Amino acid sequence: MSKLLEVKNLKTSFKTHIGDVQSVRGVSFHLNKGEALGVVGESGCGKSVTMMTIMRLLGENAKIEAETITFDDKDITKPTEKLMQTIRGNDMSMIFQDPMTSLNPLFTIGDQLTEHLIKHKKISKKEAKEKAIKMLDMVGIPSPEKRLKQYPHEFSGGMRQRVMIAMSLICEPKLIIADEPTTALDVTIQAQILDLMKDLKEKLDTSIILITHDLGVVADLCSRINVMYGGLIVEEGTTEDIFYRGRHPYTWGLLRSVPNPKSELKEKLIPIEGQPPDLLKPPVGCPFTARCDYAMKICKEKQPPLFEIAEGHRAACWLCHKNAPKVESPIRREE
Ligand code: SF4
């Protein structure tokens, strides 16, 4: 499979009046063409900042360093604003948690969908309208011709998110970054939106990065998962690696806090106690030390590298070192 996006050693920090917040502290990953990757972790772990950095959507107080960032064979490590404007409009698009913040309440859905197309694809108004109707139909909005003339407030939360998906797909981007796209929706609508994204990914062969705090959300859509904590990727692997063979205590914590869909027993969900590290002064060792039941002396002193568990499966935990004491995973999930 060829790579669409490759990021090597990305660091993003923000200047504030109390010091530099080191939100992303050396992150490397890739995304294959046509693949869906889940990026999972609590809020503040650096998952959204990583993606906003790639799209160059951060404010002036952001400081970005990277060895390389390559997208669709273009080097975007230090891109010009002009290049990023072209890429953002045509090849990469983003779906946010709250569609009301992305949709303009003063313009009809039709105006917003067609403006996007006319600006980036340089097509006529008539062609743009036809395409907008087709997209609304594709994302499951009934009577699309009539709905084009309506304003965002005339749509329910789930329908607005469908409009956002239509808007993100209308220029046929190679990559969609969806940041908690279903968090604001109730569970039934959430499942419908995830099914829709899965369906569209297969139909249009679009690559997706799904950012979420909820490990349960990524299982059906994504083939690989990056678990982030304290500005770092702490575990990466296929969805099966993470769900059934996870090796990082933080991954275990995430798994214990979501229901197991295959279990018939009512399992007790256990939240992860404690607080994430302060990224103004990140710990020198493993960022999970203060919350980890398995922490050892070395954990406080030295940041663990990503240890290779199997091909494509890596975990940044000293328990994965060959000389570490053997610890059984507390997670019992059947494949
Ligand atoms: Fe826990 Fe140590 Fe592993 Fe960090 S490196 S997750 S503190 S055992």
TrEMBL record:
It holds the Pfam family oligo_HPY. It is a peripheral membrane protein. Residues 5-255 form the ABC transporter domain. One of its GO terms (molecular function) is ATP binding. SMART domains: AAA (SM00382). Keywords: ATP-binding, Cell membrane, Membrane, Nucleotide-binding, Transport. Its main location: membrane. Coiled coil: none annotated. The keyword Secreted does not apply. It comes from the Bacteria. It is found in: Cell membrane. NCBIfam families: oligo_HPY (TIGR01727). PANTHER family: DIPEPTIDE TRANSPORT ATP-BINDING PROTEIN DPPD, OLIGOPEPTIDE TRANSPORT ATP-BINDING PROTEIN APPD. This is ABC transporter ATP-binding protein.
